[in-house]
TrEMBL record:
Residue stretches spanning the membrane: 32-62, 126-153, 195-213
Matching SMART domains: HATPase_c (SM00387)
Reactions the enzyme catalyzes: ATP + protein L-histidine = ADP + protein N-phospho-L-histidine
Protein name: histidine kinase
Superkingdom, natural source: Bacteria
Sequence ranges assigned to domain Histidine kinase/HSP90-like ATPase in this UniProt record: 355-443
Keyword Membrane tagged: yes
Phylogenetic lineage: Bacteria, Bacillati, Actinomycetota, Actinomycetes, Kitasatosporales
Keyword set, alphabetical order: ATP-binding, Kinase, Membrane, Nucleotide-binding, Phosphoprotein, Transferase, Transmembrane, Transmembrane helix, Two-component regulatory system
Key word Transferase present: yes
Record organism: Streptomyces dioscori
Entry-linked CDD domains: HATPase_UhpB-NarQ-NarX-like
InterPro entries: HATPase_C_sf, HATPase_dom, Put_sensor_dom, Sensor_HK_TwoCompSys, Sig_transdc_His_kin_sub3_dim/P
Amino acid sequence: MDTARTPYHRDTAAVRARRFARRPLAAFAPRALATLLYSAIAFPLALAGCLLTLAGLLVGGVLSVTTLGLWVLALTVRGALALGALQRALARRLLHLPIEEPPAPGAHGTHGVLGRRRALLLGRTGWRAVGCALGVPVTAALAYAVALGAYGYGTQSLLHPLLKRWNHHTVRDGDSVRHVSLEVLGVQLDTWPRWLIPVAAGLLLLSAAPWLMRHALIPHRLLLAATLGPSAADRRIRTLEETRAQAVDDAAATLRRIERDLHDGTQARLVGLAMHLTMIRELIGADADRDRLLTVVDTAQGNAKQAIADLRHLVKGIHPPVLDQGLDTALATLAADVALPVEVVTDIADRPAPAVESIAYFCAAELLANAAKHSGASGARVRVTARAGLLALTVRDEGRGGAAIGAGSGLTGLLTRVRTVDGTLTCDSPPGGPTVVTVELPY
């Protein structure tokens, strides 16, 4: 037993030793060096921007009783916005921190120079950028200090045996002259084996440098994201604009589809029905044989039935009639038509608004169709609950998983439909399953 375990322990120890030896090198990996470069650039840039912004606010405040002061303040806000754009670009490029661009002040309804100045002075985006310019030197200084300590002192301590020949000061003790490079508590660390202490300290600092830099930049990241990106109100407005535009496009597409279906299907069948009725009338007037007359009647009857079926299918696509009986009944009817066993559990005390019922129904229909077509599951479960003004629809299947929102997925269309009523859609579908899609709609 011991003999069999010996190679394993030796391999484990060797792997750990190699990992430990590579830790100082991680401080010079491309991503770590990019973080170091950002810290070296961010602090001087933030300090210069803070001083210029502060000077502009002071001058503009003093001259605010005149028109010139308003122009100085507007120019200061514009400079803060430009500085924020540069900081966003640096953060995205070097820190891999994507920050959405906020709406431009006065993007809508401003005309002329005075209108743009008014938009700058009254817009929230510009003053949030001013606040960032005034506060960001503090967070950037923390990262700068950590970078200087971890990389600067770490590298200097690691190279102490080489640098001590040049990095030293002369101490005269009577007639003797000594060169002292590093001394701690009266103990010189310039000779073997004492210089192993600064070398070990340098290795430790460089090993911890990436971790220290990541944590030192957390306040800086949070400040940039909170002040240079869109506010919650801006995101809400942007979402409403996107969903409104998508709703308009969907309505136009639906109208085109209805027009096409009526023109190519129902209208053609009704035209055929009219032609056959005309033929029946002519045959009756010509006293034609009974078999031929019955054949034309059967054809006309078939066209009428098919036209009725087409109209029912078209109406069902707009608003399923079964929804008039309630969402629970509609989901039970829907589950009975799916090609795999579906369990439906509903807990709805008060009936939702018709629009919410319709969206929940079509979401369930699309999700069950996807489960039957793509997941390979042997069954699915639909659960609907209504609590605290929120209707929650959950569709779960034990299929192969791997579903995701985006990239042309049908879930993207459902998300757009859900967002028209300020709802949310989440998808949890790891490879191997299960797939759980949750739709939450305002009650």
